[in-house]
């Protein structure tokens, strides 16, 4: 029997609406679906447009998804590795010969980059291939009659089964930050589905707050920047390196601020004075000080330090965002560059300037707000560091609205990881250290939710993400659109 509400009769695989010459009515759901034996539409191997293909092979869909997944994984990781190698080469030129000997050779960097590129390519290629394989297998086992019923849950199961492919990046390499970030993305998609739902719409209504992204950024900043000053070991090494560069303070200065905030005696205050002398500032620090302003900015006032630090931070931020905006413009809009180059490049430069301003204000306001709170209360302790770094997240308002949620979720993932690491280190969560490869479990749950939303509620995705998923996996068919059953005479 055809689905409820659809009385079109199917005979010998053809609708009665079909013309005698074999033509099909594109408005008829049976004619439209009869050309799609697979559980989704297809796309050519490297074409960026998805479209239905007649007699499309399920095995070919698996192969295509695997190749495209590999190309995305290898392309992203390869690009990041290339920039890392170039940055290391530039840094190597500025170092002395003794420091150069301590660094890995350029050949070792290239070999490591190739290995990492292949691992991430295999990871995403296997994930895509596994998801499509499970999806097609369940659809085939369910049969044409139950095809629309399995569509409601098979993407959930396929996403969960494909999750452990993360292990291909390295059996001993944990990706907690990535897993938590993907979990945050899954939570956002689930909340959007909940907002649309009649059952959960009322519960999820607070999630529609227009400035929720800035609120999340403030919470994340409090944890991340507190950890940057007080416990850097709780942060991922790459993110710690990023903060040390853009935080703009030497390690001896951070150690001194940590000691005064923790109520510990100064261990090496002379090192801070020596550091300032190398910059041309002669200062004598008081071991009995109550606030660390003189440690943070020497003889400068808090306001003067904010302005000078802002200019320095902006210069450091520009090289970070320039490739972020210009490289996608050259790749994604390569055809439009010949027609309207000034418009596209102008938007890229404007975005670079805007994002650089955000990062520089973010870093500058972190020191400004903490200094203000320390001077206001004439004291410095751990809770005050957390409170002082909380308003820093307001700098996110400078960014473009479409980028705010991305940045806030990225920072929230690192804040959550840092928070639980701190809790485990102080003994509040001792069982957390015993859990092995929790990142794989979190990632599998997250991908199950994301792929389920992709198959059932496609409109909760932003167009750019949906287009990428469509390119890799093919456009999912509506769950209510069942394959017609052939009527035997």
Automatic annotation (TrEMBL):
Topology versus the membrane: Multi-pass membrane protein
Q: Which UniProt keywords are listed? A: Membrane, Transmembrane, Transmembrane helix
Q: Where is this region: Disordered?
A: 1-26
GO (cellular component) term, any one: endomembrane system
Positions with biased composition (Acidic residues): 1-10
Pfam families attached to this UniProt entry: TMEM135_C_rich (PF15982)
- Locations listed in the record: Endomembrane system
Looking at the record, the residues that make up the Transmembrane protein 135 N-terminal domain are 301-421
Could you tell me which PANTHER family the record lists for this protein?
Answer: TRANSMEMBRANE PROTEIN 135, TRANSMEMBRANE PROTEIN 135-RELATED
Q: Which family does it belong to?
A: Belongs to the TMEM135 family.
Identify this protein by name.
Answer: Transmembrane protein 135 N-terminal domain-containing protein
């Amino acid at each position: 029997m055809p689905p409820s509400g659809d009385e079109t009769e199917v005979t010998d695989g053809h609708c009665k609406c079909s013309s005698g010459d074999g033509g099909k009515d594109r408005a008829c759901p049976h004619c439209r679906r009869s050309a799609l034996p697979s559980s989704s539409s297809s796309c050519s191997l490297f074409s960026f447009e998805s479209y239905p293909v007649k007699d499309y092979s399920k095995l070919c869909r698996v192969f295509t998804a695997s190749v495209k997944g590999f190309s995305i994984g290898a392309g992203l990781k390869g690009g990041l590795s290339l920039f890392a190698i170039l940055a290391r080469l530039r840094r190597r030129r500025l170092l002395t010969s003794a420091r150069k000997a301590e660094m890995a050779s350029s050949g070792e960097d290239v070999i490591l980059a190739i290995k990492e590129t292949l691992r991430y390519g295999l990871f995403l290629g296997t994930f895509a291939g596994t998801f499509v394989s499970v999806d097609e297998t369940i659809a085939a086992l369910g049969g044409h009659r139950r095809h629309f019923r399995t569509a409601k849950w098979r993407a959930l199961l396929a996403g969960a089964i494909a999750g452990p492919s993360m292990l291909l990046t390295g059996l001993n390499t944990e990706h907690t930050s990535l897993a938590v970030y993907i979990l945050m993305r899954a939570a956002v998609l689930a909340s959007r589905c909940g907002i649309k739902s009649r059952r959960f719409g009322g519960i999820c209504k607070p999630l529609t707050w227009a400035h929720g992204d800035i609120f999340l950024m403030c919470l994340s900043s409090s944890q991340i920047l507190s950890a940057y000053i007080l416990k850097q070991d709780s942060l991922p090494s790459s993110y710690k390196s990023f903060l040390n560069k853009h935080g703009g303070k030497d390690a001896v200065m951070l150690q001194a601020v940590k000691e005064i905030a923790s109520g510990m005696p100064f261990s090496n205050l002379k090192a801070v004075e020596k550091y300032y002398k190398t910059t041309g500032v002669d200062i004598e620090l008081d071991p009995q000080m109550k606030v660390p302003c003189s440690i943070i900015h020497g003889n400068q006032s808090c306001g003067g330090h904010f302005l000078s630090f802002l200019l320095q931070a902006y210069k450091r931020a520009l090289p970070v965002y320039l490739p972020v905006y210009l490289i996608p413009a050259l790749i994604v809009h390569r055809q439009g560059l010949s027609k309207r180059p000034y418009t596209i490049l102008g938007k890229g430069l404007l975005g670079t300037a805007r994002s650089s301003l955000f990062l520089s204000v973010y870093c500058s306001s972190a020191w400004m707000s903490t200094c203000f709170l320390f001077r206001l209360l004439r004291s410095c302790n751990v809770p005050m560091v957390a409170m002082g770094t909380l308003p820093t997240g307001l700098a996110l308002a400078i960014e473009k609205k479409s980028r705010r949620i991305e940045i806030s979720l990225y920072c929230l993932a690192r804040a959550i990881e840092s928070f639980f690491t701190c809790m485990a280190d102080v003994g509040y969560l001792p069982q957390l250290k015993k859990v092995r490869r929790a990142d794989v479990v979190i990632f599998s749950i997250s991908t199950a939710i994301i792929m389920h939303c992709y198959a059932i509620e496609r409109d909760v995705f932003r167009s750019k993400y949906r287009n990428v998923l469509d390119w890799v996996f093919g456009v999912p068919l509506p769950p209510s659109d069942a394959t017609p059953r052939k009527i035997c005479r």
